[in-house]
Amino acid sequence: MSSGQFRYGPWDGGPDPLASPFSATDAVDEMSHQILEGRTPREALDTLLRRGMPGRRGLDDLRRAIERRRREARSRGRLDGTLDEVRRLLDTAVGQERAALFPDPGDEARLREAELDALPSDPARAVRELADYDWRSQQARETYDQISDLLRREVLDAQFRGMKQALQGATPDDLARVREMVRDLNDLLEADARGEETGARFEEFMRRHGEFFPENPRDLEELVDSLARRAAAAQRLLAGLTPAQRQELADLMATAMEDLGLSGEMSRLSRALQSARPDLDWGGRGRGRGRARGRFPEAMTGDEPLGFGDATSALEELAELDELAAALSQDYPGASLEDVDPEAVERALGRTAVDDLRQLQQIERELERQGFITRRAGTLELTPRAVRRIGDVALARIFRDVAARGRGDHTNTDAGSAGDLLGTSRRWQFGDTQPIDVVRTVRNAVLRAGPPGPGRRVRLSVDDFEVAETERRTSAAVCLLVDLSYSMALRGTWGVAKSTALALHSLVTTRFPQDKVHIIGFSDYARELRPVELAGLDSEMVQGTNLQHALLIAGRLLRRYPEAEPVIMVVTDGEPTAHLQRDGSSSFSWPPMPETLELTLAEVERLTRRGVTINVFMLDDEPRLVRFVEEMAQRNGGRVLSPDPATLGSYVIRDYLRARGARRVAR
């Protein structure tokens, strides 16, 4: 392929270069484990985002990486490095001056020594008093001048990153250009505050003064954000010192700004930045989402003294890391991964972390785009497509459990009774339960492979099978009654009940399509649950186990299928404690009122007379529950099972398959 030219051809295998690196089905499979443990779709998605996808870090991993960076930033040094350096230079200059005065026996030398002895201990006041001192030692004068130079560079570096190095050995012309830049910056900010159009003025400002901003902001908003964050960090630095240190450093900074001729302009800039970004944490007040709520004396743990500018940089980085940690926690109202700034993530953790973040941001969008989740009234809901997949996962989990116990019930593919033969046949499809048409099946195999010769057998393939067509009729109608009361969550059984219901629905609808299944949830009231609703459901924090209402609804549903064999399965961990009153309201009482038990058993009697079998799966062995369930079984003739909650799914599935097998034998 020559330079600048491209050759196109058919894709010849390997990874699809146009395929999305993200698989929504993988995400649904990851979420399904959480949903089958009883969590809502929102909780399952949040768990997925925290854990991440295979090969990609989740929010928890990113937060741990942020915490490591925060520890590194805190360990860089102490905040009072500038004070220490000023004290050191001051002591050095005074010592050098004393050394020059000592050999001189004159009174003037003694007066100078007395003046040095009378210097205040406060370095800021000492520096100011020595401003007009006539140094005898040229070396001492140069050392003192280093203090002024250091303070000028530190105070500018605290506002404009990199100034400390840029102004080392600065000339008066260099300082004049700095004053001009700050003045022009203030004029630009005030014009923006008045609502004027500042796009062209910003471009002109950067053309004239861009050398002072190596980060090269793209617009005025980005410039203001950068300057405001650094100024706020400098304020927090002062707030993190002791009162004495704070006053000393503030006085030194004020002296430096007066020397620079910038005292008024820097105050003007500070006011403009605070007005532009009032949401930032100015002075350690802990304002704004993601800001540390404490003060910073404890934040810096290193032994190395940091200069004012370097300490400001460390606190600025800490503030950004705090914001990232808060955004990644997603534990504030209205949280969204779109709040996380990819550029801040890249600065803190590198490019690979941005790729991890982008995949996390893509998960919810792709789940919605590919039809697995939807939003209704601000709530995240699963679609039927997602529920089918989750039901398949639940069913596969139960079948693995059945297989591990050496039971082969799940291999039974007979779907029960069929109607009268019609004399025709058709190709077999997965889920078909009609009788195999043996003659046509063998004929198809012979036509496909040719007649068998000596020692050659007829080999059947899936495509050869045909089934005899019959008058189709429903063979079984199943109502699964699931206890939704809060005790199910307290005992840790809600998740397995939810998983069992989804698995049974998946089994009936995919492998026994002529059977009918309805899921009814009950707490203080009962209601039929759509599979989509069930998958997104949490246990209900209400009092009441209204089995009477659930049996009443089940009876109404089973009347729709007069030709079907009716079966009710009840999953509960407590005896009935609620019933419907004449006005339709629910009446709750603990211990149960005799009326509640009588009305529930009356509903059992009514269903029994209609030939409905009621099998009960007890998830607790409380004596009251045991006595009530045994009374139900005695009146109905159904079975009572007391499975370990972890094996509930296999019990229910096996019971359904066993009942189907019994019906087949009876016919």
From TrEMBL:
Record-given protein name: Uncharacterized protein, contains von Willebrand factor type A (VWA) domain
Origin: domain of life: Bacteria
Domain VWFA positions: 475-653
Listed InterPro entries: VWF_A, vWFA_dom_sf
Family matches, as Pfam families: VWA_2
Species per Swiss-Prot/TrEMBL record: Parafrankia irregularis
Region (Disordered) residue spans: 1-23, 280-307
